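Give me the fold.
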Amino acid sequence: MSYWTHGGKTTTYPWDAAGNRTTAGTATATNDARNRLLDDGASTYTYDSLDRVAKQGTTTFRFDGGSNNLLGDGTTDYSIHWMPTRPNGTSGRG
């Protein structure tokens, strides 16, 4: 997407050669050498050792061990409900 128009106002979205959005209107984004977003003009981002977003601004994210399952975002806790496995290896209810 290179631009978006809403209510008569157009916001442009330029991208760099690596595919990172560089600006959104007047907000400038900053990426590191690994193409991770560090700043989007409104929030800063930090990453954990598994390259998952650990913080966005003051919001801290919690994950389930080494997976990418999000457990919490500072305001909401999440859980994963697994479907039971039948003896024949299929999953489902009923």
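DSSP finds no helices and eleven strands in the chain.
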